[in-house]
Amino acid sequence: MNSTRALADAARSGEPLRDAVRGYEARMTDYAFSIVAESRQTGRKRVGQR
Predict the structure, then answer these.
(1) DSSP code at position 40
(2) Which of 9, 13, 20, 23 is the most exposed place for a label (fewest CB within 10 A)?
(3) Could you give the CA distance from residue 4 to residue 10 in angstroms, rounded to a whole number?
(4) Which helix (H) or strand (E) holds 8?
(5) CA geometry: angle 37, 25, 36, nearest 5 deg
(6) DSSP code at position 14
(7) What is the DSSP letter of 10?
């Protein structure tokens, strides 16, 4: 879900925007950490990064 959709959904439902932003940030943080971990593993396998 992108940030625009998260904010639009919150506005429609009456959810406080602060809560919608927090939820979006939490989802993106989880997503980003998994992508960085995957990238680290790929670097180790392909080019010997530490």
Answers:
(1) H
(2) 13
(3) 10
(4) helix 3-13
(5) 10
(6) T
(7) H
Q: What is the pLDDT of residues 1-28, one digit of tens each?
A: 687 888 899 999 999 989 999 998 998 9
Of 35, 5, 4, 6, the residue nearest 23 (C-alpha): 6
10 and 20 Cβ atoms separated by less than 8 Å: yes
Confidence at residue 7, expressed as pLDDT on a 0 to 100 scale: 86
What is the token pair recorded at 30?
A: 């989880």
Residues 6 or more apart whose CB falls under 8 angstroms from that of 24 comprise: 1, 3, 6
Residue type at 26 in one-letter notation = A
